[in-house]
Amino acid sequence: MRMRSLLFVPGDRPERFAKAAASGADAIILDLEDSVAPGAKDEARAAVAEYLSTTAPILRLVRINPVNSGMLTDDLACAAGCDALMLPKSEGAETVHALAARLAPNVKILPIATETPRALFGLGGYDEVADRLCGLTWGAEDLPAAIGAVSSRHDDGRYTSPYEMARNLTLFGAHAAGVAAIETVYPAIRDDLGLKAYAARGAYDGFTGMMALHPAQVPIINAAFTPSAEQIQHARAVIDAFAQSPDAGVLLLDGRMIDAPHLLQARKLLARAGLD
């Protein structure tokens, strides 16, 4: 699954489904959880089920309600036909196991892995269920609410220390499991410059994609997580250099030393660009 951008759309707003699918996002997330009021859950399920009964030229995920919410059976019934399920309030491999036991083997799962205090301690164990995952992501809203924090962000928008840690652990947890590392949303929908900087930082740090709240955010996110022509050219040069000197441990390229980590980095970049 190529997932540079994943666009949320409320499950009870079916009039938005087609626009979301045409946004240029690599995937849409049909939401049955936070964006749907309790009294509208059945309406959302019906709309999602109808939409998934037809084909669409885009990956379609369904964010279900938490596995212990009492709504799992109804959520799964309406999500038949989706490409993957987004799992909120995941607390590690055990939560994934609990959901996977209810699914066909080919249905992938994208856990939101930082929404409870306990979840932070399971971020290093997702490799145990890596075959069921299509990625790992995090959120910056539920966790501060769970512990009574004022906010996850400073006044200038930067994450405070606890939530910077949650972000970093998600990044490394995803790569430890060998799955896509998905950056969380940027909530200031009209702040294009801020989004551009935020998405660029995510790609720089090693995230491979990002979630979006509005179709207007999608082009900016896609650009940030698409390797540039210059990056691709450099990656190919690194790979060619080692191909020409397969016994070398260290090489000089464009006046700089390169070694095995640079080769691995180059291969990963070409894989993200779909050129491996």
Folded structure, characterized:
This protein is an alpha/beta fold and 276 residues long. It is built from 10 helices and 10 strands. The strands form 2 sheets. An 8-stranded parallel β-sheet has the order 5-4-3-2-1-8-7-6. The chain starts with a strand and ends with a helix. The model has no long low-confidence stretch (mean pLDDT 94).
Write the layout of secondary structure elements.
Blueprint: E1 5-10, H1 17-21, E2 27-31, H2 41-52, E3 59-63, H3 72-78, E4 84-87, H4 93-100, E5 108-111, E6 136-137, H5 142-147, H6 161-177, E7 181-183, H7 192-205, E8 209-212, H8 218-224, H9 229-244, E9 251-253, E10 256-258, H10 260-272
Parallel strand pairs: 1-2, 1-8, 2-3, 3-4, 4-5, 6-7, 7-8
Antiparallel strand pairs: 9-10
Helix pairs in contact: 2-3, 9-10
Summary tags:
276 residues, alpha/beta, 10 helices, 10 strands, 38% helix
Low-confidence stretches: none
Percentage beta strand: 5-15%
Q: How many DSSP E strands?
A: 10
Number of helical stretches of at least 4 residues: 10
Distance N terminus to C terminus? Answer: 14 Å
* Major sheet summary line: 8 strands, parallel
Rg from C-alpha positions?
20 Å
Q: What's the shape?
A: globular
